[in-house]
Amino acid sequence: MATPRVTAAFLIATRASADTPLRPLLAMLDDVGVPTTVVETAEDAAARLLLGDKDLVPCVLVDATDVSRGDAPATQIDARLRTLREMVPWAAPVLVARAPTVALVLAGMRAGAADVLDLEVESAGTVYHLLERVARLHHERQAQRRTVTSLRAMIEDFLRDLVKTERRSIDLEHRLAMKDRPSGPVVVGADLDADRPPVLFVVEDDREVADHLCEALEDAGLTTFAFISGEEAVAQGERMSNRREAIDLLLCDLRLPGIDGLETVRRLRAHKPGLAAFLMTGYSDVETATSAADLGVVGFVLKPFDDLPALVKRIQEQAQQSMQRTREHHYLQRIKERHDHVLQRYRKLTAEIDR
């Protein structure tokens, strides 16, 4: 196997440093055939590493000649290496100093430096061997990254297969449960029924308006329950929830006798969390709109209905989307309940991988 070789160097230093104390280092790098680019910030170096040739084998040199005799080298060095460490975690930066103190060396290593180059004693030969070490470390880290990527992909493939298998299992269990139910009319399907029509609650105290709207919704293939008060809707919602029957969308008048539309939404969601809702009103105001937004209401429907077909289409689309979200929520909750230990282990593994 060929000896790993650095193909480019990036020196993070001021132009003044590059032209004076670091000039011998640049000459040594030139002697061993490594082209060097001087940049002034860690961000510049990180950008060149991330956007450069993927086959590049870099050596990042960090100038520390101006802090070698400082009173607080740890703070200064950590600040200079932090950005590089965060943006390019696989980089192996080398600290460059002149007769570095023990404190400076320790600060550099703790801040993520892979090596320290002493300008007082280094020669072209020792620089060449340092570059060999950096190249080997680069290849080792790249191999680790490939292994980590492969491991993450394997884990994610396993989880996807697990989800698919569990979805099929949940669907089968649901069909068997429906088959074993006591005989009698089934008013409405359950959340997991794949082929059922969407189920709507319409709460409107004007019977003429309610009948007109429900007729249009039923003609569009939606199962509709109509109520003249929020209390009636909440009571029926509780009964249906206890029977595990679906409710996909609420279309509720804002002004109702008894509890109003906003309170009706709140109470129904106690039984059907996340229930999608439209509020019907003859007018709107900022306070009501803010309260509705806080509840996550899908939108407002202004009365009288100027374009009933367009309204029905909009409600139908929202109900279909709500059905799908509810099904996905059931799947995820059931899978989490059955395989919580696997998911916890996955989260732990990914946290370890990302270190």
Summarize this structure as a short list of keywords or feature phrases.
single chain; 355 residues; alpha/beta; Rossmann fold; 5-stranded parallel beta sheet; 12 helices
Question: How would you characterize this protein structure?
Answer:
This protein has three domains: about 10-150, Response regulator (Rossmann fold, 3-Layer(aba) Sandwich), CATH 3.40.50; about 150-180 and about 340-355, no CATH class; about 200-340, Response regulator (Rossmann fold), CATH 3.40.50.2300. Helices cover about 55% and strands about 15% of the residues. It has helices spanning about 15-20, 25-30, 40-50, 75-85, 100-110, 125-180, 205-220, 230-240, 260-270, 285-295, 310-340, 340-355; strands at about 10, 35-40, 60-65, 95, 115-120, 200-205, 225, 250-255, 275-280, 300. It has a five-stranded parallel beta sheet, sandwiched between helices. Helix 3 runs parallel beside helix 4.
